[in-house]
Amino acid sequence: MTSRDAILESALTLFDSRGYDAVGVQEIVETAGVTKPTLYHFFGSKNGLLETLIDENFVGLSQMLGEDAIYHGDLTLTLQKIVKGYFKFALENRRYYRFQLSLWFSPPESEAFQAVSAINEQQHAILEKVFIDAVANHGNMRGRHKVYAATFLGMINTYIGLALNGYVELSDQLVYQIVHQFMHGIFS
Amino acid sequence: MTSRDAILESALTLFDSRGYDAVGVQEIVETAGVTKPTLYHFFGSKNGLLETLIDENFVGLSQMLGEDAIYHGDLTLTLQKIVKGYFKFALENRRYYRFQLSLWFSPPESEAFQAVSAINEQQHAILEKVFIDAVANHGNMRGRHKVYAATFLGMINTYIGLALNGYVELSDQLVYQIVHQFMHGIFS
DNA sequence: AACCGAGTATACCGTTCGGTATATTATTTG
DNA sequence: CAAATAATATACCGAACGGTATACTCGGTT
Between A and B, how many residue pairs show a Cβ–Cβ distance under 8 A? Predict the structure, then answer.
């Protein structure tokens, strides 16, 4: 493993278990088996390390959304594909997704918030587009796409959080239940 | 305002906007207009300040749960009272609830997590009891009370988070919708 | 052979961290 | 009034913080 990857790996583990602010760069480089100038050579700053960490881990989720979050006439089906994609990504990147979850409601003026706001907006934008495209077929959704996107993502994250703590299993049945529950909440 | 209250007030504002780890005690006491030994006189440590802050702000929510989270034969009605209580509390303690939300998925080995785990368990215990008591009337809920409590709280927090960020309004209609949506997700 | 740039180590910078020893001032209590 | 207790200030502690100046190694290029 290269020094760069070792640093990213150690940073993810430490940030996930104790949080970004509570971990110092000294501990990161010691865990990675390198020295401080190496970290600053690759990432410029502690914040740059955080941004790189988030960006490079998020691409997988971003790719999934690019493929699955496209409305083709059947909203229920599209939402099921999205939920399934989130579940798959969360299970394959447990540490990262837990870390991303911990940043979900992070304080607005924290460094961590600045770093996740970009990927949050990206997710919202893609999900909103799904609901906007679906408006033609579901007239009573007009103007509510922002709320729907946020609510939908909120439900997904809630269940993933439950799963990451061992409360539930991310099964196909749960995918169906969540989408069903969400749709019911919208159209009643 | 007493020095003690000034410290708690400043700490809440700073923790809420930048996070517990990113704020130093020096900044807290400067904002409060006191000196460091005063803080240590009242709270013993920075962590003690955090615990006191959480405990003293949580009592309001705890009281509400003690009054409203009691199953009397009508589960839908009970859940509506609980959601209404959460909404009321969140609106009356916006800064605190936002801070509590930011600690919801905090890293398991962070100081903040240790401090909120107590109140999290308290909420879960009370909500679980509601679902256990309701089992007699809803046979198909047996053994699922832990999941239900976590899911229910997850939905409440999701919507409060949306409201605190201006996406939705915490209306009585939303109370009804959430409970309806939750019940539908359970019994289908 | 000379050079170059990427990667890395040693040793250090000034600042801030959480926390405290000591002393002084108010405030209560006997 | 005197004694005790609570509340506060000055000044400081060692450790850790994020970050860097400098120099060295080393594989590839000219």
Answer: 110
The letter for the amino acid at A99 is: F
A68 in contact with B, Cβ within 8 Å: no
Chain B touched by A24 (CB under 8 Å): no
CA distance linking residue A50 with residue A183, whole number of Å: 36
- CB-CB under 8 Å, B110 with A19: yes
Would you say the C-beta of A61 is within 7 Å of strand C?
Answer: no
Residues in chain A: 188
* Residue of chain B minimizing CA distance to A17: B107
- The answer, for A171 touching chain B at a CB cutoff of 8 Å, is no
Distances in whole angstroms, Cα of residue A25 to Cα of each of A11, A40, A49, A53, B25: 9, 10, 10, 14, 21
The CATH number of the structural domain formed by A1-44 is 1.10.10.60
CATH number for domain B47-186, candidates 3.10.129.10, 3.40.50.300, 1.10.357.10, 2.60.40.420: 1.10.357.10
- For residue B158, the model assigns a pLDDT of 96
Q: Which two structure tokens, joined as six digits, stand for A19? A: 């949080």
Q: Classify B186 as helix, strand or coil.
A: helix
pLDDT digit string, tens, across residues A57-74: 999 999 999 999 999 999
- Domain at A46-186, CATH from 2.60.40.10, 1.10.357.10, 2.60.120.10, 1.10.3720.10: 1.10.357.10
Please write the tens of the pLDDT for every residue from B87-132: 999 999 999 999 999 999 999 999 999 999 999 999 999 999 999 9
